[in-house]
From TrEMBL:
Its EC number is 5.3.1.17. It catalyses: 5-dehydro-4-deoxy-D-glucuronate = 3-deoxy-D-glycero-2,5-hexodiulosonate. It comes from Acetobacteroides hydrogenigenes. This is 4-deoxy-L-threo-5-hexosulose-uronate ketol-isomerase. The gene is kduI. It is an enzyme of class 5 (isomerase). The lineage of its organism: Bacteria, Pseudomonadati, Bacteroidota, Bacteroidia, Bacteroidales.
């Protein structure tokens, strides 16, 4: 397998107070998660979430266990969520192929031994973004189309955060151990996501930003509500959000992002909201 792997440790909010820009980015920003012809993975010790990407070209790419997992195969003790953000492609799970179009998802349960990524056309390759979390029982593999999503229409034009939240891998659609994933699309003229901001102490999150237009950017805000920080993010980059941190962003244009969560609480609406005028 052609694979790149990185490991990140957990951080204390007291330490983050003293980080400069370079240190903040090195701890929380995930650059180049999607690399042509490669599988790339990052293991964060925040709830042991694994974040990855795969762009298969002419040849399939296999998802195999990295040494850090100490496992015989990737899903031996893990579940997996995949969302395609590129051209048409397939994910082969223990010999069965699931074709994923743009913005379609696949949940793969614990115990699956073989996962393989394929592009339908190498000149317009699939881009498989994935999250993985520890799992202790096995649930069936489920494909989730855009039509299968639980859709929330949130925000308003007046507050520049009109957005559509597509809940894909979530308890209303798919039974999982702890992993949840979805996709939020900002409407034209809106730039703020996850407003008002919030924290959820019983689960962490990773945001993957995409559909960011050329020469545009997103400013991701993190940190404790009374000690916020920001990270400028380019197209197809991700950011780690510990459970103690807010997670919100504003772009220089509208954009989309994938949110992935894991932890002990599966209730999507369980969060501690902070009003914008309370942030420091």
């Amino acid at each position: 397998m052609k694979a790149l792997f990185e490991e990140r440790y957990g951080t204390s909010p007291e330490d983050v107070k003293h980080y400069d820009t370079e240190k903040l980015r090195s701890e929380f920003l995930i650059e180049e998660i999607l690399v042509k012809g490669m599988v790339k993975m990052l293991y964060t010790h925040n709830d042991r979430m694994l974040v990855g990407g795969a762009i298969p070209l002419a040849s399939p790419l296999k998802l195999e266990a990295i040494d850090a997992l100490k496992a015989e195969y990737f899903c031996q003790r893990r579940e997996l969520g995949i969302i395609n953000v590129g051209g048409s492609g397939s994910v082969v799970v223990d010999g069965q192929a699931y074709e994923l179009q743009y913005k379609e998802a696949l949940y793969v349960g614990q115990g699956v031994k073989q996962v393989e990524f394929m592009s339908k056309d190498a000149t317009v390759p699939a881009k498989f973004y994935f999250n993985s979390a520890p799992a202790h029982c096995s649930y069936p593999t489920v494909q989730i189309s855009r039509a299968d999503a639980n859709v929330l229409d949130l925000g308003s034009v007046e507050t520049s955060n009109k957005r559509i939240v597509n809940q894909l891998i979530i308890s209303k659609n798919v039974q999982t151990c702890q992993l949840q994933m979805g996709l939020t699309e900002l409407k034209t003229g809106s730039v703020w996501n996850s407003m008002p901001p919030h924290t959820h102490a019983r689960r962490m999150e990773v945001y993957f930003y995409f559909e960011v237009p050329e020469n545009q950017s997103v400013c991701h805000f993190m940190g404790k509500p009374d000690e916020t920080r920001h990270i400028w993010i380019k197209n197809e980059e991700a950011v780690i959000s510990p459970s103690w941190s807010i997670h919100a962003g504003a772009g220089t244009s509208n954009y989309s992002f994938i949110w992935g969560m894991c932890g002990e609480n599966m209730d999507y609406g369980d969060m501690d909201t902070i009003l914008p005028n309370q942030l420091l």
